[in-house]
Amino acid sequence: MRILIVEDDQALGEGIQMGLRQGGWQADWVQDGEAAGHALASEPFAALVLDLGLPKVSGLEVLRQLRARGDAMPVLILTARDAPDDVVAGLDAGADDYMIKPFNLQELGARLRALTRRRGGRAVPEIVHGNLRLDPAGRRVTLAGQAVELSAREFDLLHELLAQAGRVLTKAQIESHLYAWGSELESNAIEVHIHHLRRKLGADLIRTVRGVGYLIPEAGRSPAP
């Protein structure tokens, strides 16, 4: 899943981005509130990691603008401001979680997984679809109890389709969810990943909606002809 980090400290921003990418997230990073506003208005992200003390536009103002336009994206404030009034102000402005610096990267990743899980309406960490199970934290997939080896991109694509089961995703939507800025993307990359997933998990799992995109039908429901 794709995350936006807004942090003005160069070393810390690079560290968070690298740590989240190592944890399987597609993490983009900007260093001021104005750049954050432009990115959030033009790109899809699964969650936002937001510092408060930002140049140009404050973190609270970025958050207020996001909520004012009705965007329910999960937001985790990550800041050195630990006064109760600051925590209250952040949560009341629309944040879903609040972490104080210094922090643990593993905990940050776990909190982001919890936020995106709840946003998707799931109470449990694993995504279960028939006899297919996907564990986002461990980045593991099993089919009928047997482990399935997937590449990082195959795992991310399967995760996105399962998280939005029943919804058709266009190729452009899939690319925007799976590829951070600067990622190399071949023109047929999505088609290749779909082919590999069908070979490993069964030809009927992912359906092509001709001229539109791809979907995994909701479990227990047959796709319309």
UniProtKB/TrEMBL annotation:
Q: Which residues carry this modification: 4-aspartylphosphate?
A: D51
Keyword DNA-binding among record annotations: yes
| Cellular component GO terms, alphabetical | cytosol; protein-DNA complex
Q: Tell me, what is an example of a GO biological process annotation in this record?
A: regulation of DNA-templated transcription
Q: Which residues bind DNA?
A: 124-218
Domain OmpR/PhoB-type per the UniProt entry, residue ranges? 124-218
Q: Name one Pfam family in it.
A: Trans_reg_C
The subcellular location is:
Cytoplasm
Provide the protein name.
Answer: Response regulator with CheY-like receiver domain and winged-helix DNA-binding domain
According to its UniProt entry, this protein's organism is Azospira oryzae (strain ATCC BAA-33 / DSM 13638 / PS) (Dechlorosoma suillum)
From the broadest rank down, the organism's phylogenetic lineage runs: Bacteria, Pseudomonadati, Pseudomonadota, Betaproteobacteria, Rhodocyclales
